[in-house]
What does this fold into?
Amino acid sequence: MAVKTLIEAIRDGLREEMERDERVIIFGEDVGPRGGVFGVTDGFSKQFGSERVIDTPLAEALIAGLAIGASAAGMLPVAEIQFADFIMPAFDQIVSEAAKFRYRSNNDWFLPMVIRAPYGGGIHGALYHSQSVEALFGHVPGLIVVIPSNPYDAKGLLKAAIRHPDPVLFFEHKGAYRLIKGDVPEADYIVELGKCKVSRAGKHLTAVAWGMMHYRCLEAADILAQEGVAVEVVDVQTISPLDRETILNSVKKTGKCVVVYEDNRSGGWGAEISASISEAVFEYLDGPIIRVTGPDVPPMPYNHEQESAFMPNTEKIVAAMRGLIAY
Amino acid sequence: MANIAKVTMPQLGESVTEGTIGAWLKQPGDKVEKYESLAEVITDKVNAEIPSPYTGTIKELLVPENEPVPNGTLICTIETEADVSDAPAPHAPAPAAPAPAPVPAPVSVATAPASVAAPAPAAAVAVAAPPAPAQSGGNGVSAGAGSKRLSPAVARLLEEHNLDLNQIPGTGLEGRVTKLDVDRYLEMRAAGTLPAPAPAQPAAPAPAPVAAAPAPTQPAPVPGAAHAEIGMRSPYEPTESMPTPAIPAPAAPAAAPAPAPPALPAVFAGSGDQVVPWTQMRAAIAKHMVQSVQTSPHAWTYVEIDMNNVMKYRAHIKEQFRAREGRDPSVLAFGIMALVQAVRQHPTINAAWSEQGIVLKRDINVGIPIDLGDQGLIVPVVAHADSQSFVGLTRTVGDLAARARSGKLRIDDIQGSTVTLNNAGTFGSMMSFPILNQPNVVNITMEAIVKRPVVIDDAIAIRPMMNMCCSFDHRVLDGAQVGRFLQTMKHLLEGMQDAGLGY
Amino acid sequence: MVSTAKRRAGTKEAPPVQRLHEELGLNAETLLDMYYHMVLARKLDERMWQLNRQGKAAFVISCQGQEAAQIGTAFGMDRSKDWFVPYYRDLGLMLCVGQTPRMVMLSLFAKAEEPNSGGRQMPGHYGFAKSRVLTTGSPVGTQFLHAVGVGLANKLMRHNSEVCAVFGGEGSTSQGDWHEAMNFAAIHKLPVLFIVENNHYAISVPLELQVGGQNLAGRAAGYGMPGVAVNGLNPLECYKAVKDACDRARAGEGPTLIEMKCIRITAHSSDDNDRTYRSKESKEADRQREPVAFFQNYLLEHGLLTEDADAILRKRIDEEVEDATDYAEKAPAPVAADLLLHVYATDEEVAAWRSKH
It folds into this structure.
């Protein structure tokens, strides 16, 4: 097994799927010879040609709508939105159309398509290169929303997404692209969608997070372990449809839960998780469900001071965990 | 006046964490203009030339070509004319670097409204600085008024097991009974190690120890600290270094429960009496002392030790030692040195009781109770005492004591004690009967060193004598074992020639 | 290819009906089949309004005035393999690609066996997988991008052998999606037909407030594709423009924009009152040139249809409409619990889908 960065694992997964199945095509802004602004599709244009790796015009609704039509007609498109912040022009296509194809056609039409988009902040991306948008789409039934937290799962989840007959939004934390590394096998494998994963076992407190915040929770759990507190970390992985069972089982065991997300606090996806916990396992709770989140401001500012004040980080997570443990 | 300005590896591209100098375009001694290219940098995303942030002369190139370095690494220095200390950094710090904490908002338990409940402006809530460790009771969690508050989990467990809340010691915020407390209570009950429940409630309304506590004005201590301070076991056992299960249980769970203690007379504060509210630490000490006594059958013994050699040696090295180390050689450090050697010969001293059996600890971590005046006391730990020299031990002891008194102990400092050595003699005590610092199985005291006439070789001599007392857990140890151990301590201290200092 | 300018000029005069069907090589049987579908669409549509006004159907949206455009287009394509992305007025088109009167009425009453959506969508929201008709929703203009995606697949996987036609009113061309679709289709020369059924009203907003310059077909040039405007009241003209465009598309020459100038006979929908924005005179003028009567006259004039045959045909259609209405009214409604079905593929469906590839 080789140690890969998150972005390398995603690139490998995409390439292997394109090699495996001719119907897989890629399109988006600058994905061709440039290889994408982050380099996810680096070398693809050369390997697969301009018919399968298509530079689109600067039009996000087009990118999403094209994926809808192409997948309806038998292809397996993997579209890239350059930054999740710029997915809004495609919102109508994704929410009004892609999400509803199967339901509104009474199961006659379905869309095996993937839209990838880098999300997340803490990288000096300012208001329009930092946002977390998972809650906007997690709210919409019919969409599968995936956020991988590490290279192994990223590759397996992406392959599962490409081989799934429903539309998948695949959000990748751009700060994690080259920060998070891990073993990735060469062999073909998939990590099934729709499952949360207990990434670290513990009995005193449950931390629920995804993407970069999952990584931060693992760091916080290491610190708490030195204090004798065993934190169980749940990696949500698939935002929607949400595997509530795994989360609930963990909270039933620990009785305490911290939910961490980078998005704005109100109505963030962790709010749904928190509500689900209190509805289903209220009598197992031994303390309030605590959220560690970004604040309710429009997205994070460019300057370092305000950006870092916005971002939930290991320190803030540790403080919340300690507070809840002391409760 | 010339200044040395630093140039760091910039972050070239979002998500990029490192960069490689492809080629230096300047060499030491070269003049460089601001914005003139210093080096070619290659990253995963871009190849670029970095423009110099300063005008000056290249002093040192600190990173070789073709070797990737993380963002923010110092790559070269430039000698400049102007003072650059106030110049803004050319690039923001790398994302991986921990951000400087925002202005810490005071979030003590007493003053911070719960952010979960209070409709405070959301931004303020979420950005609220992480409290310092000692204030971690904050962060929006409050047990609320009245520590009788039950969490749903505790309420369910009480009902399922038909338990009385007042019988269960609470270790949570403001004495709240936590789920873990109930779990532990149930395990102890199953193991038969609980004290028998109190008989009929006394007619007079006895204040329930925890529940009646007024809201403390002190910030809540860090989890575990309250327990460690008084030498008690935290419910949160370190997962790696402490495999000992949290719940000590006797070998014979069928043992008959102790007879019920008689009801105590109620205490009332009459007119003219003064009620001093418990501090958090006081309440915790009270609870854990009771728990320790209820958990371990305490037994006690002592020996007399002639400290002549130690004191002579100490006097001999004192001046030189103070000159070198800036502090006096510590008597306690001599005690720890002897203890480490003695424990190697008597491993059951450095042990803990567990359900699986007696756990003989590999590490020798010596808990040293430190008096904090009216506040109470705390037990910092000399970790890995077996790997420290006399100088190291003296420093560690001095440092721990100083930090204990200034409230600057870290979590690590108060965890993992495997054996307790108490310098009780500081207060002139001649003998004491210490309560065990759970889960340690001995608590040894070094009493006051007093010159007394003693018989040596049938002659009367005047010697600095010290009593060494030892409380021990009779589940693990018997009197003879402890006696042999104390004889070893005595032998080691009386025979002390030097402490390996070479002077 | 007939130039846009010349074709537009033609529409300003009387329709050039002189034996056009012979020029196009259409036999009597085909012409009568087209006529049958036009009458059927009209009569079904009228029945739906009756049922709405009886309180039996909640909502109706019409094809009246656009039957020639829809049926001419359908007949100009290869209905055995081509793809369709319709919009909500395309009842005439749907009847040509396999939907029956019973299906139409089932859809009106939102019954369980309704083929578009199982009763989940409003009437007029078509989708018919077995004839490669994509499912459609209510947002206006989104469908153009889907057609371009289908076109991309048809180019890459099927070497342009299958063409995709996408339909919309002139109002939908104001959407950004229309622009993005036209642009991409032209860049990549995709086998897509953009059919604009210009009925001159988007609910109440007239063409002159919708389209700057009012020359939709002329816009195609700016995108780098041919654009033609045809008389949308004559099915044969529509048929010819579509056939030419399909030939180009299958030859790899890319997309075509076809503006079919139609009329809207009814209000926007059963919930709309067009008297607030249209004069009686304007509506009456439209009725005088409505497409079903126009084609009836054409067939009669050219001896392709007799009065008697017409009466028999219309009686047969009346019976079909009657049967469809009865059948649909009695058909079972969907089961409430099925509300939760088909949000995502089930695990079994995922496994089955994967195993097919």
